[in-house]
Amino acid sequence: MATTTVFGVPHYYQITGTGLPRAEGAGPPLVFIHGWLLSHKYWQPIIDQLSLEHRCLAYDLRGFGESRYGLADHCPGTPAAAQAWGASASPYGLGAYARDLAALLQQLNLGPVWLVGHSLGGSVALWMAHCFPELVQGVVCLNSGGGIYLEREFQQFRQAGQYIVGWRRPWLRYTLLPLLLTRMMVHRPLDYSWGRDRCLDLLQADGAAALGTLLESTTEAEVHLLPRLVAALRQPVYFVAGRQDQVMNLRYVNHLAGYLQASRQGQNTVIEIENCGHLAMVEQPVVVAKVLQEILSAAPVAQDFSRS
Questions:
Q1: Is 43 among the domain residues?
Q2: Partner residues linked to 142 by β-bridges
Q3: Does residue 161 belong to any structural domain of this protein?
Q4: How large is the angle between the packed helices 94-107 and 207-217, nearest 10 degrees?
Q5: C-alpha angle with apex 219: 213 to 221, nearest 5 degrees?
Q6: Total domains present in the chain
Q7: How far is CA 21 from CA 33, 36, 55, in A?
Q8: Dihedral angle at the C-alpha atoms of 263, 94, 287, 110, nearest 10 degrees?
Q9: SS (H, E, C) the chain
């Protein structure tokens, strides 16, 4: 297990395909960002298919997975670009997690990269592209979207999340919860091993981080910043969505994607996957890997997206 300290907190990461030559024709590095109450391990089916052509970095967000230790030593901060837009200044805000990732990439001397973010991780990826454009060549948001604030729905979502975080107990891993998690938020049941992993990640996540990321990313102000953020990005951005996703409905994916400059120019920036719920990387890993390969093969040669 590899770890490096980022702003006082040990961060777990794994790099696959490090032996690839940095030669012309080699694929760009890929960085995978997991979603809420998950961890790096859900990306492995995708990495197994892409690591022969790309260096792949998967890591655990601060407070989740194996990055849940040493949180008392965290040195908080928010990127200047996020502050300028009035984004959350919380250590659990999207900008703060973008700052963590930028520091991680700089420590690993990895970049510019393509970001692949799932759900909450997709929002982190978008803020990363805005705040640190010199490190990001492009973004793929998986089961991620938004930009529409529906007060009643968001209140119910936040209440449900708070209930889940507040009522976690270690002994729940010995109940039917892992089996239940093979069926939650997916179109078809997953293998039991994924339910077990989801159960452990849910129970072991740091409470303050779990609650903080939920609440800070779903305020009306943060939700309304997403369209403005997407419209301002210069890098190529794509949205990959499950047609049966009941968590991130296609309506919200298409809404946010509609603000992209490419979308306004008539380009297709949303790729829909059939027979797929909210965990596309484990429900349809072969399809997701193929979509990523197609996006990357069509992407322009590395450009400098730094602000002039």
A1: yes
A2: 118, 240
A3: yes
A4: 120
A5: 125
A6: 1
A7: 24, 34, 10
A8: 100
A9: CEEEEECCEEEEEEEECCCCCCCCCCCCCEEEECCCCCCHHHHHHHHHHHCCCCCEEEECCCCCHHHCCCHHHCCCCCCHHHHHCCCCCCCCCHHHHHHHHHHHHHHCCCCCEEEEEECHHHHHHHHHHHHCHHHEEEEEEECCCCCCCCHHHHHHHHHHHHHHHHCCCHHHHHCCHHHHHCCCCCCCCCCHHHHHHHHHHHHHCCHHHHHHHHHHHCCHHHHHHHHHHHHHCCCCEEEEEECCCCCCCHHHHHHHHCCCHHHHCCCCCEEEECCCCCCHHHHCHHHHHHHHHHHHHHCCCCCCCCCC
CATH number, domain containing residue 145: 3.40.50.1820
- Say if 146 falls within a structural domain: yes
Does residue 160 sit within a domain? yes
For residue 234, which of 121, 144, 150, 112 has the smallest C-alpha distance? 112
Q: Which domain covers residue 76, as residue numbers?
A: 2-298
Mean pLDDT by 10 residues, the chain (308 residues): 95 84 71 98 97 96 98 98 97 98 97 96 98 98 95 93 95 97 98 98 98 97 97 98 97 97 94 98 98 92 68
pLDDT at residue number 295: 97
The one-letter amino acid code at 59 reads Y
- Return d(Cα 30, Cα 201) in angstroms, integer: 23
Rounded distance between C-alpha atoms, residue 9 and residue 126, angstroms: 23
d(CA 226, CA 46): 27
Closest CA to 86 of 97, 95, 73: 95
Q: Which two tokens stand for residue 206?
A: 């740091």
What is the residue whose two structure tokens read 């129970």? 203
